[in-house]
Specification:
This protein is mostly helical and about 150 residues long. About 45% of the residues lie in helices and about 0% in strands.
Length: about 150
């Protein structure tokens, strides 16, 4: 299973992130590539506790859906709605400079594995409480999902 806990998996994600261009075309969804980069930035900040996101979890989401999303080889489905705080058409960060925003995402993704020993990871807004290992797996899968959205 791929995870940001492994240097080679992090390097792969960063290589793919660097392939994005301001004119990269989405394969699905409504975000522009720059909005998606800002969404990744907000999602990373959420994962490390720097951005609060409203709770939308429930028993089935915290158990069955979480397990399927994190531990099966199935690709994440397209069109899943995100929380408004990390939705670039609602309360998410506004795109400013593409290269700067990509660089910020790189720094956040590179820094996440160093935080894996912390004890107080925030709750995920859908999946509830998660361990550091769960968050690093989620961060890989979430980033992979959006990079595939733009053919990277």
């Amino acid at each position: 299973m791929k995870t940001l806990a492994r240097d080679d998996h992090t390097a792969e994600i960063l290589r793919r992130l660097r392939q994005l261009r301001p004119d990269s075309v989405r394969q699905w969804g409504r975000m522009s590539v720059h909005q998606m980069v800002c969404h990744l930035k907000d999602a990373c900040r959420m994962a490390i506790g720097e951005k609060e996101v409203s709770d939308a979890s429930g028993l089935v989401l915290r158990t069955v859906v979480k397990w399927i999303a994190l531990y099966t080889p199935l690709p994440w489905p397209r069109g899943i709605l995100t929380r408004p705080e990390i939705d670039q058409e609602a309360g998410g960060s506004c795109p400013v400079d593409f290269a700067t925003d990509v660089a910020e995402v790189e720094l956040l993704l590179e820094g996440m594995p160093a935080a894996r020993t912390r004890r107080n990871w925030p709750a995920h807004p859908i999946f509830g409480r998660m361990s550091g290992s769960d968050w690093l797996r989620w961060a890989y899968l979430h980033t992979d999902h959006h990079l595939r959205q733009f053919g990277a």
